[in-house]
Sequence to fold (486 residues):
Amino acid sequence: MHKDPHSTAAALLPLVGGPANVVSVAHCMTRLRLGLADRSRVEDGALRALPGVLGVVEDGDSYQVVLGPGVVGRVTEAFEALLAAGGGGTADVLARRGAALKERQRERAATPLRTALRRVADIFVPLIPALIGCGIVAGVGGLLTNLGLLPGLTPALTAVASGFMALIAVFVGHNTAKEFGGTPVLGGAVAAVVVYPGVAKVTVLGAALAPGQGGVLGALAAALLGTRVEKWCRARFPGTLDVLLTPTLTVLVPGLVTLYVLMYAAGEVATAVGAAATWLLATTGALAGLVLGGLFLPLVMLGLHQALIPLHTTLIEQQGHTVLLPLLAMAGAGQVGAAAAVYVRLRHDASLRTTIRSALPAGLLGVGEPLIYGVSLPLGRPFLTACVGGAAGGAFVGLFAMLGTEVGATAIGPSGWALFPLLAGGGGWAATAGVYGGGLLTGYVVGFAATYFFGLDEGAGRAVCDAGEHEPRPADRPGPRPASPR
Fold:
């Protein structure tokens, strides 16, 4: 594996068609996302076999190379430097070319549901690093409080961890306006109404509003309305009037509507979401865990998992943690167990075993793309048995929720072992971690057993070997095109 990000970037560039074929470069937590002028110029087989590449995914308008957390940022920086040196153009040129390409591809491939989910992800995914950081700080503060250590430091840790969550509505408003073509700061200004302490003096239907009522859902709705008002104003006001009236009306009209309509309505929705999640786990926890843990991998393949991001954020904002994420994380445990069974059964397939050895550590830490696209999905049945393992792990965690030990996560993004520092629940961290660890172990064991006994046939290893360099890309396989798990 290339240890030097510059070596990895240098090896990648010619395999994707060279600088002239790259029109945009970006990255998320695990993937280098490329916009390509001519998809046919990519050497898929050589790229997939490149040391350091954990997998390749095509998702709508981008060609995504899975490199793993931490590595991807350094490789992206080196890749952009090589582009500039090789005549690929400056960042501004690439941005313009990439925007034009994305627009053409979205017009060809977009559906209303896919577009809506992509926009939801574009609003909330940029917030995940802050959620992770603040969640870990909150976990450390809670642990110190429970142990009675450093009492003078815990209030400071609480302030650091809570500051972002207190103002998350502003960031949601900013990103919403940016995504829908408005002025980001105006979107943030309108959404700030939701968290302003002075709203307690405003009464709606005879009751005073509470600061933060409606949370991120109210902020999202407020910023959407603000963007609509801004666009309407800009289309009608000339020059000087536009400078004065557009920002004024964009803040005033949506601000009043937010106070008297959206905060109350969104607050009712948020309360219903929290009550539904609590009721679901308290009364049908094992069944709910089985269904959620078993169906999450297919949801990822369909891209429908992105619709859960606002629900997670709402639960974290309202209850301090999301009870859904630990259940969904069990899908990754089933995936790890299935991959381990493939490794044991297919001893003759050196190439596949090498892929599993390199991808398992990432899978244990909750990065599932290498195992999904490199192992279970090409083999077919191990993908289904991985879902069985996820269902078993989810049922385990859900059963304990019915018994009173609820498991939640204070942030979204990490899963697998990486979720341990973010765990929270009413029974204390030790009990919560014990239940979550038991769920992972259940997912590993059931995923392994189901795959070992039912997930493989004698020709499975040979089929993967024969696929070799012409292994079908996820986008070329029958059925719906897979979407990004992150």
